[in-house]
């Protein structure tokens, strides 16, 4: 049965010993893993981009909480309790992932440092944060397109003849297009 290595405070410092270049390379690795060649080495994070660190997971978790609060704020649902719920849900998800990985590693052979598992589980928040930003930008861009589309079509309808069938078809297309945009929003 595998045992989990837990180190004292001195041993845990290596998980936070990173620099700007390491963070940039690690984020590229997390976001585009298919562009990286993996080499199995056991060096501290500052010397090896493949080594797990706790700096990026903790910063990504903080970013996730801030972005979730921002998204709640622009949707009109912000409250301190809502931020607490987001942070709690994120921590519980992270804990569940760590427990699941730790359980699976106990059935395997070999020692796995618990903080490595915590680090690997925390990298998820990088993708979650990017998803929140993308979702916010996407929803507002669809709103702008729908409003612009509506104004253009209404101007076209007003220029067309008052009782033409062309006008009726244009109104029908406008209604269908706006219905589709409302469903997407």
TrEMBL record:
Compartment annotation: Endoplasmic reticulum membrane; Golgi apparatus membrane
GO cellular component: COPII-coated ER to Golgi transport vesicle; endoplasmic reticulum membrane; endoplasmic reticulum-Golgi intermediate compartment; Golgi membrane
InterPro entries linked to this entry: Yif1_fam
Superkingdom as given in the UniProt entry: Eukaryota
Stretches that traverse the bilayer: 54-75, 82-100, 120-147
One annotated GO biological process: endoplasmic reticulum to Golgi vesicle-mediated transport
Keywords noted in UniProt: Endoplasmic reticulum, Golgi apparatus, Membrane, Protein transport, Transmembrane, Transmembrane helix, Transport
Membrane topology: Multi-pass membrane protein
Family listed: Belongs to the YIF1 family.
Protein name: Uncharacterized protein
Organism: Gossypium tomentosum (Hawaiian cotton)
Biological classification of the source: Eukaryota, Viridiplantae, Streptophyta, Embryophyta, Tracheophyta
């Amino acid at each position: 049965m595998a045992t989990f290595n837990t180190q004292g405070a001195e041993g845990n410092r290596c998980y936070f010993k990173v620099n700007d270049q390491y963070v940039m390379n690690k984020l590229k690795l997390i976001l585009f893993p298919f562009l990286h060649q993996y080499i199995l080495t056991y060096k501290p994070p500052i010397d090896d981009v493949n080594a797990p660190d706790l700096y990026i997971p903790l910063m990504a978790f903080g970013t996730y909480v801030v972005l979730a609060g921002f998204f709640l704020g622009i949707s009109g649902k912000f409250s301190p309790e809502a931020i607490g719920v987001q942070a709690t849900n994120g921590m519980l998800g992270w804990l569940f992932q760590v427990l699941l990985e730790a359980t699976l590693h106990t059935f395997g052979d070999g020692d796995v440092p618990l903080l490595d598992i915590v680090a690997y589980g925390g990298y998820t928040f990088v993708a979650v944060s990017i998803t929140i930003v993308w979702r916010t930008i996407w929803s507002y861009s669809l709103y702008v397109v729908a409003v612009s589309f509506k104004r253009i079509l209404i101007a076209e309808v007003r220029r067309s003849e008052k009782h033409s069938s062309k006008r009726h078809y244009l109104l029908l297309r406008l209604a269908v297009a706006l219905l589709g945009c409302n469903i997407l929003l």
